[in-house]
Structures are given as C-alpha cells and as structure tokens.
Amino acid sequence: MKHKILLLETIADDAMEILSRAEDIETFTGYDETSLRNIIGNESINGIITRGKGQVNETLISAFPDLKTITRCGVGLDNVDVMFASKRKIKVVNAPGSNSATIAEHTISLMLMLQRNLYQSVNEVKAGNWDWRKEFKGDEINGKTLGILGLGNIGKRVAKIAEAMGMNVVYWNLVKENVPYQFLALTEVLKTSDIVTLHLPLTPETENLINGESLKLMKPTAILINTARGGIIDQKAVAVALANSSLAGFGADVLIEEPPRKEDEELINHPSALITAHVGSLTARTYTEMCVNTVRNTLAILRGKQPEKRSIFNHQLLI
Hints:
By secondary structure, this protein is α/β, with parallel strands linked by helices. It folds into 2 domains: 3-98 and 285-318, NAD(P)-binding Rossmann-like Domain (Rossmann fold, 3-Layer(aba) Sandwich), CATH 3.40.50.720; 100-275, NAD(P)-binding Rossmann-like Domain (Rossmann fold, 3-Layer(aba) Sandwich). 34% of the residues lie in helices and 15% in strands. It contains 12 helices and 12 strands. The strands form 2 sheets. The protein has a 7-stranded parallel sheet, sandwiched between helices. The protein has a 5-stranded parallel sheet with strand order 2-1-3-4-5, with helices on both faces. Helix 1 (13-21) packs parallel to helix 12.
C-alpha cells in the first residue's frame, strides 16, 4: 500500500526527485483550487507538503481523516493551523534554523544598500549619469548602533556580522539572552539605534509592533529593516514616515500580503524603500536543503521511522 502525499506548491528539484523515486509514495498536486477540489473527497491523503503560500487550515485538514503529517519546507508556520493539527495528533514538520545564515546575509545586504545608497548609485551609472557622484549622499555602517528586535537564531547571526563590521549592537527580546550585547527596553532600542532590524515571529503580541507611535521614537536618520514577517509592521505608517522624512530608509523581504496590494504601491515605489519579493531563503543551497530535509523527515514519519526530533514543531503538543 502506498503513502499518498499532497503537494500544495512546487518544491526543489532534488526533493521532488526523492519523492518520485520512492516506490511506496504516490504524489498529488493541488497547486490551484480546481486541482485541490478534485483531490478532496477522491483521495485518502497521508501527508501534505507546502511552502509559504499553500494554506493548511482546519477545512483542508478535516478533509483527510488519514492525515499523519503536515510539512512546511521552511521555518515559519503562519500558513498552517498547528493547534488544530495537534488536536488531530498530526505531526507538523518544518526546518528550524535552516535559513538563519541566508536571512542574516539578506538583512545585512539591505542595510548596506540603504546606508550607502547603492541602488540609486548603480541606476545612475546605468543611465549614463556618472556625474551623479557629485550629489552622492551615503554613509557606512561602521560605528553605527544596530538595534535588533528578536534575538533568535537569525538575530544572533545578524549581531555577529554587524559586530564584525564595527557596529555597536543592542537588542530587545522577550527574554534576556546570555550574549555580549546590551539588552534594552523596546523604546530605548528604537530611540538609540541608527538601524533597527526585525527578527521576531508574527504573534498577537508582535502584530503591528512597529506602528505610527513607535516610528516617532526613531531617529529621522534611522533605517528600518524587516526580513521577518510583514504583519509586524504597520506598512501605511512606514510609508507616511518615509514621505515625511521622519524615517530615512526601509528595507524588507516580506509584506503583509504577497504579492503586494495596490495600497502598498506608495511604500514600494518610495525611493528610500528597497523591497525584495520574499527571496531571502530562496538561495540555491538553502532552498534545496530545506526541501530535501523536510521531505526526508516526512517520509520517515509515514514509514514509521524516527525523523529528526527537532523537525517536529509540535512534538510537545503531541505528548
């Protein structure tokens, strides 16, 4: 008897090859509503694999009574109803820590591009305007204060890189960490930092954490970076702050809605905003490793074998 796996999104070729070669696995694709409807009610699915967009909600979970595992080829689980899955004793698999290095690099890249005004510098040269160098305004991050909100795996990596580049690192976190960086109240981090970077999960407590009031605490010369979750920031408030020159720059790899809403155009098109299309984890190595490792752990569960313990996000809720 074959184990049946439903793919809600494409995955890395190497991971897909593992599924294709497995003689005890049958895969189905539900990349759109039509194909998904054809599967619901017609197939007994044992595993669901998604990335960041495919929604694994209570309705979908309930449609498959033989479901044993839900897999997210990535870290965040905003698109998976973990609590409902846990009530059904379904293992939720993800790839903790797998994107720490690449997201830290992406964060630092956005900082440098904004602080040194690299994007406009490159565009002016491409436009044949070499003389723009006479108008250049930019600075280095060396000697600046970096405020990190959220000192988990990614936050710690960003801190190490920033420290090596000569920055003074301060942080705010839900708990004080045993690190060589100064722990400050959230308001103090916002007031004192030249660059603020977010590395928090999206929870009811962190939603709209950076809003109109918190932005007023920041220096008008400050830069804000978000490579965590779009909902942590009030994007309209950031657009207003940029327009009023009360914030010097904004860099992000995430938005509240992706692709962006029409109402986000003001923010996206602002010359001091650099926004990438949620590509921080899509580097060749990290994307492949995330997909391959989560697929292997999924197969282990379906075959009654032991997966990597840390890969089961809700293991404590299943006890």
